[in-house]
Amino acid sequence: MSEEQQGPRTPSRLSRPALGALGALSGLLAGFASLALAELVAAAVRPQSSPVVAVGSASIDRTPAAVKDWAIRNFGTDDKLVLQLGILAVLTLLALALGALAVRRRAAGAAGILLFGVIGAAAALTRPDSRGFTDALPSLTGAVAGAALLYFLAGRLTTPVPTADADGAPAEPGAWDRRGFVIAATSAAAASAVVGGAGRSLTSSRAGDAAASRKQVVLPRPGSPAEPVPARAALRVDGVSPYLTPSKNFYRVDTALVVPKVDAMAWRLRIHGKGVTRPLTLSFDDLLRRNLIERNITLTCVSNEVGGPYAGNARWVGVRLADLLAECGVQAPSRGGPADQLVARSVDGMTIGTPVEDVMDGRDAMLAVGMNGEPLPFEHGFPVRMVVPGLYGYVSACKWIQDIELTTFDSYDPYWVKRGWARKAPIKTQSRIDTPKPFARPKTGTVMVAGVAWAQHRGIDKVEIRVDDGPWQEAHLAAEDSRDTWRQWSFPWRADKGSHTLTVRATDRTGSVQTEKRARTVPDGASGWHSVVVTVE
Questions:
Q1: Stretch 432-449: mean pLDDT, rounded?
Q2: Sheet harboring 476-477: ordered strands across?
Q3: How far is CA 221 from CA 245, 265, 292, 374, 415, in A?
Q4: Which of 193, 333, 404, 475 has the smallest number of CB atoms closer than 10 Å to its CB?
Q5: What integer is the mean pLDDT of 308-323?
Q6: Would you state the pLDDT for residue 361?
Q7: In what order do the strands lie in the sheet with 473-474?
Q8: At residue 305, does pLDDT exceed 50?
């Protein structure tokens, strides 16, 4: 049959499901392009201004303390990754929905992407560490590009393409611009991948400057080195936590979605505020030239549940904080000083309030520059962080510190206090069973039960074990390094067949016995006895 006999050619049309699917694909491509360009602009501005980071950080700031505690308990140090993946998943779903909307209402779909750009910009501008309008540029620039792309792609799907019949006369319009859509979609995907890669490369390059500054740091020999660790401070028991926690295994709990990469050569610290008669600004080199102290100190996070993993012991090197404050003319409240709170601010806007009395009472509170024999890792605060023995991290351990202000508890509430945590939080006496693990199935005979106990700045005097409802039996304590470090303990248990509950409690150097009363982490740390259930075979 000839073409003339076939009659007019019918233009191809998209079914409603196909149109919706291609519209959703258009939304996904527009969202990808938006985030890719935003990442490139954020790399030029600063990584913290990225829309994903800005929105994620704003979400963290507005999340109730109980929910944050749940996230840390269930996801541990991966909580930030889970949050970012969750944000990306939500953005993906919204992009798909806006794409499907755009094939029916092009302007509405594009406006939806613009709206999310405004939300990202608002989140960036309201962060405590916001640097003004430039922080809004990544979200706004990316949103404009994504909205324009979605509007264009939706047009290729919905704008009729004139076709002609066999005689060359115009046929009924209605075919979609298949060629134009495929070219535009493919080009957009390729360009977005290139732009996103360029953004990642630029971010890595800028972080490389900070990494190079860290590699150049040579820690001076401390003027006051740590005492040698007693030979019997570390037990030779399989499964017990090592006496000194390797830096790579040290817990990390903070709100930073992007770990700040600070160039040590550009870093400055300002000390000022109430009762400061001689304000001080210090560079990193200024700190290194001062008399350094070296101490083994155990840190504990207030989010640590009973028996939890968020405690670690490390060797810290730094400048005694009390000496710096005295040089600035600061006096402790007990000696008539007007300031009772020290507010430390980090480069990412975090604020942490610490009692001035505790910092100046003779304990080894320091501005740390080293951890376990090397400059601080970026994840743990490079170039400088605070370390205060005996206080939970949220009231003492400011990482990436850049400002210290002397003030009062009555006049200022720092980050965590605004969210329902206590103003003051000395670490509670705690003990933990490291081995055997919960639901272990050891053999009958002697089973070594072991773990760690801590009561920083008071010291551990005794650890006791109870099997089921039996009497408390004293465990063997490893040698004490200092009252600011945890102590390992062990107990040889003659295990009989069956299911058994092992419970531990500690007594600190003041004679105070670890309380049995269970308390959650909010507002000032968990309490209770740690126990594990095992089945002896």
A1: 97
A2: 430-435, 445-454, 487-495, 476-477
A3: 21, 20, 8, 12, 35
A4: 193
A5: 98
A6: 97
A7: 473-474, 460-467, 498-508, 530-536
A8: yes
Lowest mean per-residue pLDDT among 5-9, 386-390, 496-500: 5-9
| Of the listed ranges 13-17, 350-354, 466-470, the one predicted with least confidence | 13-17
Q: Identify the H or E element spanning 144.
A: helix 137-158
Cβ-contact 79, 115 below 8 angstroms? no
pLDDT digits 0-9 by tens, 148-187: 999 999 998 876 655 544 444 444 444 578 888 999 999 9
pLDDT, position 1: 44
What's the rounded Cα separation, in Å, for the pair 502 and 5? 91
Query: What region, left, alpha or beta, does residue 476 occupy, with left being phi > 0 and alpha being psi -120 to 50 degrees?
Result: beta
Phi, psi of 192 (to 5 degrees): -65, -40
Q: Where are the alpha helices (DSSP H) in 77-125?
A: 79-102, 106-125
| pTM > 0.90: yes or no | no
Give CA–CA dist 454/456, Å, rounded: 6
* Tokens found for residue 156: 């290729």
Q: What is the rounded CA–CA span in Å between residue 452 and residue 433? A: 7
pLDDT at 6 over 50: no
Phi/psi for 130 (5° steps) reads -60, 140
Q: What is the pLDDT of residue 68?
A: 75
Cα radius of gyration (the chain): 30
Angle between helices 79-102 and 106-125 (to 10 degrees): 150
Distance in angstroms (rounded) separating the CA atoms of residues 450 and 336: 46
Q: For residue 509, what are its two tokens?
A: 């150097």
What is d(CA 46, CA 127) in angstroms, rounded to the nearest whole number? Answer: 13
Alpha helices in 344-409 (DSSP H): 356-359
Our measurement of the distance from residue 380's CA atom to the centroid of its chain's CA atoms, rounded to an integer in Å, reads 10
Band the pLDDT of 63: cuts 50, 70, 90: confident
Q: Which two tokens stand for residue 300?
A: 């504990």
**For range 12-27, the mean pLDDT:** 87
Q: Please give the Cα distance from 99 to 110 (Å, whole number).
A: 8
* Burial label, 470 (beta-carbon count in 10 A; 0-12, 13-18, 19+): exposed
Question: d(Cα 354, Cα 390) in Å, to the nearest integer?
Answer: 11
| Each residue's pLDDT tens digit, 475-488 | 999 999 999 999 99
> CA nearest 250: which of 436, 369, 348, 379?
379
Preceding peptide of 338 cis, ω within 30°: no
- Cα(313)–Cα(288) distance, integer angstroms: 23
- Give helix then strand counts, H and E, for the chain: 11, 18
Tokens of 41: 């602009």
**Pick from 45, 15, 34, 25: which is nearest to 97 by CA?**
25
Cβ atoms of residues 109 and 98 within 8 Å: yes
Write the burial class of residue 267 (CB in 10 Å: 0-12 exposed, 13-18 middle, 19+ buried): buried
Helix, strand, or coil (residue 275): coil
